[in-house]
Amino acid sequence: MASNPQFINTPRISYGEITTGQTARTTGTSTSLVEVIQGATGGTRIVETVVKSLGQPADSLVQLWLDNGSTKILFDEYDIGAPAAGSTTVVSYRLSTTYSNLILPSTSWKLFAACTVTPTSGGIVVWAFGGDLV
After folding, report:
1. How far is Cα 99 from Cα 58, in angstroms, rounded to an integer?
2. CA distance linking residue 65 with residue 77, whole number of Å
3. What is the pLDDT of residues 102-120, one digit of tens each?
4. Which of 10, 52, 116, 119 has its CA 20 to 30 A from that of 34?
């Protein structure tokens, strides 16, 4: 147990853009993952992720993967259905999810994202909002 509580000291915002689909859900076979954020030396807490399409994301799942420096493990996924393509008259797809337990304990840890189907047009941006711990 830590002798002192850990709080966010330095805010962090980062993102990765998914442009290629991948169907794997198991360690070692995952491809087309994009890095969203890397942990800091003292740890990084991710408070919220936002999935935002830039066009037509296609009927797919968006996946979040944790990488501890040697192994990527599926952490969470979102079923985004088959949303309408974003245009000048239609808002593109957006999903926000908050977390109380998403921690990258050190610089060897990273958060990656992927989607199961290549977007029909544009990409899918996955944002991470949080901060480095003290």
Report:
1. 26
2. 9
3. 999 999 999 999 999 999 9
4. 10
In this prediction the pTM is 0.91
Tell me the pLDDT of the chain averaged across its residues: 90
C-alpha distance from residue 133 to each of 12, 61, 77 (Å):
10, 30, 25
pLDDT in tens, 12-26: 999 999 999 988 777
- Other CB atoms within a 10 A radius of the CB of residue 115 amount to 28
The Cα angle at residue 102 between residues 99 and 103, in degrees rounded to 5: 145
Q: Of 39, 41, 38, 60, which Cα lies nearest the Cα of 51?
A: 60
For 76-80, the CB contacts below 8 A with 24+ separation are 78/51, 80/51, 80/53, 80/115
The DSSP call for residue 32 is S
54-73 pLDDT, tens digit each = 999 999 999 999 999 998 99
Q: What's residue 134's pLDDT?
A: 80
Do residues 123 and 54 lie in contact, with contact meaning Cβ atoms separated by under 8 Å? yes
